Amino acid sequence: MTQTDFTHDASATSWVEGAVGHPDFPVQNLPLGVFSVGDSPPRGGIAIGDYILDLPAVAMLMEDPAEDAALTANAPVLNALFAGGRATITALRQAVFGLLTDESNRAKVEPHLHRAADCKLHLPFFIHDYTDFYTGIHHAMNIGSLFRPDNPLLPNYKYVPIGYHGRSSSIRASGVDVKRPTGQTKPAEDGGMPGFGPSTRLDYELEMAIWVGQGNELGEPISIGDAEQHIAGISILNDWSARDLQAWEYQPLGPFLAKNFHSSVSPWVVTMDALVPFRTAQMPRPEGDPAPLPYLLDEGDQAHGAFGITMEVLITTPKMREAGDAPHRLSRGPMTAMYWTAAQLLAHHTVGGCNLQPGDLLGTGTLTSGEEGGEGSLIELTEGGKKNITLPNGETRKFLENGDEVIMTAYAEKDGFARIGLGECRATIKG
Amino acid sequence: MTQTDFTHDASATSWVEGAVGHPDFPVQNLPLGVFSVGDSPPRGGIAIGDYILDLPAVAMLMEDPAEDAALTANAPVLNALFAGGRATITALRQAVFGLLTDESNRAKVEPHLHRAADCKLHLPFFIHDYTDFYTGIHHAMNIGSLFRPDNPLLPNYKYVPIGYHGRSSSIRASGVDVKRPTGQTKPAEDGGMPGFGPSTRLDYELEMAIWVGQGNELGEPISIGDAEQHIAGISILNDWSARDLQAWEYQPLGPFLAKNFHSSVSPWVVTMDALVPFRTAQMPRPEGDPAPLPYLLDEGDQAHGAFGITMEVLITTPKMREAGDAPHRLSRGPMTAMYWTAAQLLAHHTVGGCNLQPGDLLGTGTLTSGEEGGEGSLIELTEGGKKNITLPNGETRKFLENGDEVIMTAYAEKDGFARIGLGECRATIKG
């Protein structure tokens, strides 16, 4: 958990084939997830190169507390494992690092490695509650300009980490198709009848998923200084949005059917330990912005609370896949485009007494970088559907068509450290 | 499930002491809940008079499917029982009715009756997702006038059953104290700093809880005609609200910390079967209001979809309790004050593909009757905190003080039928 954590050593190598130099999952990463092979029950695993290590199967090769942790991973979700707290995850990660770097373990461990291509990946947690924040200030400005041209950024934005409760039941792991939602849309004229039918303005939203590890009791807030200890890790979140439904329904209580038909999340939980080398200073507040209120203020958090991670959105259309074209990148931007840090989100969420539980999912909100090419949604790229995007094969898009596949990726790079990645969050639109 | 259901016979009597003429729980009601006695594990029970029948303990006195249902109630929550569908609940209810009315069963059944006063009541379901609607049009008008004087009822209100996702983790059964939340409040002047501290405008909201029985698959909406079959039953919900936090945080994505610190729900699930005699016509739409869109329109639902139930809110203060004063009634009004029926709420919630699951909780929103004395919240009774309420002992209130206890009750009365009640939802404010 410090800069001297031996798992961050860029020169460390794993004996697992293809792990060295793997763009996402070298031995310096070791993200946790839930996998199954064939008809076997889903259970906890760790990604290493193009393989998945079966955690419960290698438990007896470790010592407590790592052994106990690996046995706790013998479950269809990782809630109990992460409820054990950060020290447990650290012990497990360091033990696995040892197994995968020391050649002498190879004979015992190798039988418990599965090719990722042969596995099915599941949601890593049972998600009781899902909260979506709105930390991307550039996104908030862009969306605000479309929905409220005269008043894009509301007066509370720079004080309150704005968030709302989302729908847990419709969250699915990467790879599950997304059915285009149906609903009401704004009447064409004042006093006319609303429209009704499949959404014609279906969009993605590029977000980071923050997973809660240890929770808190009802009525007992988590302080900003303690908040990091309650974070299990991060993944990529695509909070699909039906913009036409949203525009009609969202006042006064926020988005509902525009969001609750599906959310997709990448299956690997990249741990806070793996991310230590890539923590960086919070986005500087623009000149004249107020300082965070005391319950959101922490020197260490302001200095190191952000994630130095690059995110990307890519698309393939049915025609592109037929022609064998590579996915086309729609945007790329830094995860530091957050007005609030993850710790600030936890501190705010609980300050009134609300209890978080292990496996709760906090979305950051759409992360738009503020620079050309860093838009985190189509509604921003197409200026509210007024402008076409032209793909390399000449096809155009304003919003998503049936058959389109959206692929989100994220990775961290820094001199002196091995690059690590979050993997992919991908899904295809069905009519 | 029809008017000839023998469990609705007003002349039926139970051998259980005090059950005949019980204001809430005569044998014609038989609501389900989860109880425990001393250190025994929580399990399913049925309220009869001032007693609770231990369902698993009497399972062997019934025949399938009732026996199987009673065994399924041998669990800390009733999700699995209600997931079995309405026919299962009907069979169980009718078998229990037989046990409790036929004197010949007394010797075998009586040992499995526990005095309610000796029992602890728990949340009846594991609540994965909680949705709160806004069906009380009088409440919407009143609140709208306070938050948006120029625009109280937004143009979507009469087309879209407005709702938003709430927080599941902080829902507690009746009787659990409510800790006053802390949070940010609106700056006193434009450009000033927000306030921060314990809420000074803490309020209750009188709502009905609609419990989901059988769910639906993601992407497969529930039609308005089928919706009633997916409802397990109803309870009373108090959706506590911090009005000062709400006013500052709620735009643009809806209420968050203003609501997520606690919600209280009464422990007894009054089944759809018990409610059959009290179903009534939907509130007539005011002249000139649009008809519901086709996916929300069903002749049977418009004719019988509402609940002929009266709800009440009472308060006691520490001084009143010290003096032995009776609770003071703050309001009374009909549950028919809903612009949308329960079936319309389910049809709307799922029309975009969102999946409901057994035990999901749908709140109706605050039910204000539209007549003097029928206000469902203090912010309405005190006109936004401008006016005092004077209690019988001379104390005054604008919002809730520490030590105040709020008690909500509800009951259904109709000529030719036994009165039934929902029991109580009560909780005390702690500082």
TrEMBL record, chains A, B:
InterPro entries (UniProt xref): Fumarylacetoacetase, Fumarylacetoacetase-like_C, Fumarylacetoacetase_C_sf, Fumarylacetoacetase_N, Fumarylacetoacetase_N_sf
Fumarylacetoacetase N-terminal domain mapped to chain residues: 28-124
Name of the protein this chain belongs to: fumarylacetoacetase
Pathway: Amino-acid degradation; L-phenylalanine degradation; acetoacetate and fumarate from L-phenylalanine: step 6/6
GO MF, one annotated term: fumarylacetoacetase activity
Primary enzyme class: hydrolase
GO biological process, one term: L-tyrosine catabolic process
Residues the record marks as active site: 139
Organism: Aurantiacibacter marinus
Assigned EC number: 3.7.1.2
Record keywords, A-Z: Calcium, Hydrolase, Magnesium, Metal-binding, Phenylalanine catabolism, Tyrosine catabolism
Binding residues for Ca(2+): 132, 205, 207, 239
Ranges of residues in domain Fumarylacetoacetase-like C-terminal: 158-429
Residues that, per the record, bind substrate: 134, 148, 246, 250, 366
Gene3D superfamilies cross-referenced by the UniProt entry: Fumarylacetoacetase, N-terminal domain, Fumarylacetoacetase-like, C-terminal domain
Residues that bind Mg(2+): 239, 259, 263
Cofactor: Ca(2+); Mg(2+)
Signal peptide location: none
Source organism phylogeny: Bacteria, Pseudomonadati, Pseudomonadota, Alphaproteobacteria, Sphingomonadales
Spans annotated as Disordered: 173-196
